Amino acid sequence: MPEIITLLPDHVANQIAAGEVIQRPSSIVKELMENAIDAGATSIDLIIKDAGKTLVQVIDNGNGISHDELSLAFQRHATSKIKSAEDLFRLKTKGFRGEALASISAISHVQTVSRTVKDSTAKSIKIAGNKVESEEFKVAPLGTSFSVKNLFYNIPARRNFLKSDSVELRHIIEEFNRLAIAHPDLNFSFVSNAKEIFDLKKTNLRKRISTTFGIKVSNSLVPVQEDTPVAKISGFVINPSGSRKSRGQQFFFVNNRFIKSPFLNHSVNSAFEGLISFGYHPGYFIFLDVDPDKIDVNIHPTKTEIKFEDEQSIYAILRSTIKHSLGIFQVLPTLDFDRDSSMDTPYSYKEKKPSSPPLVSIDSSFNPFKESSGIYSLESNQKINQIEFESESIQNVIHDLNADLSPKQIKVFQLFNKYLITALSSGLMIINQNRAHQRVLYEQLLSTLSLQKTPSQNLLFPFKTSISPTELIYLKDNKTELEALGFEFHLDGSEVINFTAIPVLFKEKQLDQLFDKLFSSEIEFNGFSKGDAISKQLCKAMAIPNGKILNIEEQQELLASLFTCKEKTLSPFNRPILVNLDAIEIDKKIN
Question: What is the pLDDT of residues 270-280, one digit of tens each?
Answer without folding.
Answer: 999 988 887 78
